[in-house]
Amino acid sequence: MIDVKGLQFTYPGQKERTLHGLNFEIPRGEIFGFLGPSGAGKSTTQKLLIGVLKGYHGSIKVMDKEIRKMGPDYYERIGVAFEFPNFYDKFSVLENLKLFRSLYSGNIEEPMRLLELVDLSDAAHMKVSQLSKGMKMRLNFCRALLHDPDILFLDEPTSGLDPVNAKKMKEMILAKKAAGKTILLTTHNMQAAEELCDRVAFIVDGEIKLIDSPRDLKLRKGKKTIRIEYRRDSELKEVVFPLGGIGENDQFLRFIQEYPPETIHSQEATLEQIFIEVTGRQLL
Ligand SMILES: Nc1ncnc2c1ncn2[C@@H]1O[C@H](COP(=O)(O)OP(=O)(O)O)[C@@H](O)[C@H]1O
Ligand SMILES: [Mg+2]
């Protein structure tokens, strides 16, 4: 669906290059995440992919067509939700959606149905200026879905949301994946990356350091052991066993009969540990 090769970019008037030759492919139906600290180049990459930044070197193909040759019909095929939503504050939620809807010529979703989907139908007649940050972000997501696009670009979709709103947003994104959409999102939140993404690209200083699925990474980089917490004479203790052959490990089996575990965990790495190990940087 998306195929990027040797993507380089320098902002006009800047001496330093911002992107140093990115390579990645995103197949149809995947959620692909750019994970990296602030200033890494995540938003810049997305802006190039949606064509609002121009003048790149290398190749960006979306649906087999080079971005620099795309016409305005490209915007009928993609949905974009960026970090700082621009709405008409003095108009209502519904009026805003109707306004944006008039920009599209193809099939259009019914705004009220979309508002129900994102749990905003009660706010349909509120002015945008009265909405909380979480409501605005959901409205922004709604706007990106108006024309039922095949590809969604979401810039920091959970950033600044409280846990309840973040969970709602993640559920909505997963529902769109289930509906067959291809989704490219950026985040500096590794928990969001882990919960949402089929694959993540670690990006630091305009370079991709690694691309893989969060699950494979955690298994490959983690310890192949399990850790048990148990009590002996009411004192909390822990013991570690190798994960391989655990079912035939008599020592382990006898142990858990004698000391019923209070907790039992395999020790895969966290995405954050892996990020730091691979990039030498924190995700701040
Ligand atoms: N309009 C701009 N002009 C010049 N430099 C910019 C502009 N926007 C972003 N940058 C720089 O490009 C780099 C990448 O920024 P950005 O893509 O926004 O990072 P991220 O989204 O990963 O936080 C940063 O060093 C930032 O300062
Ligand atoms: Mg950004």
Describe the structure.
- With about 280 residues, the protein is α/β, with parallel strands linked by helices.
- It folds into 2 domains: about 1-220, P-loop containing nucleotide triphosphate hydrolases (Rossmann fold); about 225-265.
- The chain contains 10 helices and 13 strands.
- The strands form 3 sheets. The chain has a 6-stranded mixed sheet, with helices on both faces.
- A hairpin with a 2-residue loop joins β11 and β12 (about 235-240).
- It is globular and about 70 Å long.
- Magnesium ion (MG) binds near residues 42, 43, 155 and 186.
CATH superfamily of the largest domain: P-loop containing nucleotide triphosphate hydrolases
Q: Class of the largest domain in CATH?
A: Alpha Beta
SS content category: alpha/beta
Sketch the major β-sheet.
6 strands, mixed
